[in-house]
Fold these 3 entries.
Entry 1:
Amino acid sequence: MAIAVTPKIIKVLGVDDHELVMSGLGSRLDHENDIELVGGLPDGEHVIDEVRRTGANVVLLDLEMPGPDPFEVIGDLKRMHPEVRVIVLSAHVRDHYVDAAVRAGAWGYVSKNDEVDEIINAIRRVTKDEFVFGSLVLERCQLIDRTTRRLKTAPVSKLDMLTPRETQVLRMIGRGLGRKEIADELHRSPRTIDNHRASIMRKLNITDRVELVRYAIREGLVEI
């Protein structure tokens, strides 16, 4: 008599400040026998603690959130929980974002506009140590080899000189946020944001805020 084998449950932690995204995904995952949404966070502040508490195998991480820089969060997870697979789930699909996410330690990058079945398939695949890029990512980005679905070597850019936090501040400047708004969203002081902005301008050889906004848009750091 054959003995039924219970499939190992993939535990997923969602990190996104859009509640509808997580609730919708959670409702869909309720119908999957091998995947469970074990928790949700509105930002990356307590991801490490929540991974430990829930035993999550996969973290679905948005990029546009208050709190810690998401690329730093990915790096921290890779260092402290190398067995956990991070998938970026973002509305923003740009070469620079994908490159930064993979370099930080992400195992996948999918768009919020990808089919839900594709996102669920990505969750399963990363637990088998596969790098996964969603259809819209493959369609829109130039740095991904279409045959191997691996990231090509990105060309050297001035953006590579920026720290993850500086890149995040530049994105927010590009969105038109002021220093106080950026400080509030990142839970940092306005003086700290001023220091980041000064460093960004020095590294990019840009002398005014308007040109910073134009640069962020031109480099695809901002959805328009």
Note: The longest strand covers residues 35-41.
Entry 2:
Amino acid sequence: MATLFSFASWNVEHFTNAPDRVRENIEFIQESNPDVFAIFEVQGKQVFSSFVDLMPTHNFFITEGLSVMEILVGVNRKFTAFVTQRQQFKSQVPTLRPGALVTLTTDLGYYSLLFLHMKSMDDPRSWGLRDDVTLRVAHLKHALDQASGDSEHGAKFLCLGDFNTMGMNLTFSDKDMDGLEELTRYQDRLSRNHLIYLDKDAPHTWWGGMDSGLAPSDLDHVFASDHIEFTKFGTASVSVRGWPQMDTPEDQTDWIQSHSDHAMLYGEVLE
């Protein structure tokens, strides 16, 4: 089966106008050359301008709001795409980021890609906001299914990004939840809307490096309609690219310091 389009999602922490870092990160994205991608924590119009100048093959869109860290979306010019800012994924918190929804036109119909950057931290409020966002994902998928006209399969839909699945720490309680339990909760909820969790070819997507004192974590994820076919990377449907590909902790730390503490998620939808 041939590739219909490729996609990527990457949190480039505090991605602002540092020219060398901007250029290196754009070159890293170009190595995979995804047709549709989102970059999280973009700060400043200069980053937008750099993408426009260095990636003339793509059109770009950036979310707007009270947050100084926005979502930048790129779409290959060979595709027709409709990009919308979905305010419901702010969960009525003005300073949170909206979702970026890309409706891509292909020879096989429409594909909807929802890029999300959820609230971080493991306190109950932050966990509750993430839980609310995943419920809103389920509602959107249901609405898209109803509008698709495909009563058997429903909409062709992907939801991906930095879910910040850190779990929940309840003070003075034995009911704490770790990141895996939180992710499992979302898997169970979204499976009811025929969304499956796409396995990755690396166990972790975030690390602060050797000097952080923190262990690597699995924070970035992809969910997709269960009737979509994907290229396999080994046995996985999502390739984790960046620091997890480095051979040693020293090399991983160097990559993190020059690029980002998050790895990039990359995948390919098949015809």
Note: The domain at 3-270 is CATH 3.60.10.10 (Deoxyribonuclease I; Chain A).
Entry 3:
Amino acid sequence: MSDPIKIAIFIAVFAALLLLGRKLSSYDSSHAVPGPSIRPAAYGMKVDEEVDEKMKSLPATVGADLPFPILLPDIEMDKDGRYNRPEFLNYYFEKIDLASGPSDPKSFIDTFFLEARGLEDGYTFKYRYTVATPSGLQQALDSMRKPSLSLGSQVIIVPRWDVPLILKTVVDEILETYQASPEDLPGQILKAPEDAS
């Protein structure tokens, strides 16, 4: 075989492999199904038994899906360039759906997150609180079969499920100390991943 024929065969095989690779990669991305943003069971729809357990446990509704249920002061900047409050982006419970609430409004315990962004630097962070009712705490103690329950430093106890009350309690605490140094901010602040954009 002459060299031009070998080169032509090589280019044809290379092009065929390249085309096959692109076809396979485009098939994967175009047929990938993103995870659901809601739990169908929360809206009375049947849930396929093969759906991943983690997806079934995701809260269906988060605060970004709803109108903010409490009044906030306007965002203002002082003469030093500091703002009176962060921009509140989202809030949600780790397990409980905001719209439907817990199965027993007088007995629950869950972790509450409030996402905020500092306007001075654009830094996004999360505040983390444990929110519970007295009955929910007792139920957690009973299920653990232990004499004590450690909840961390930021705990909010409410008499019953009341999202506006829970949110107002958290926001009031944040607003009270927002202009303090980051070490003095309330809640357990969780660093958000760096934004790639």
Note: The first strand starts at residue 87 and ends at 93.
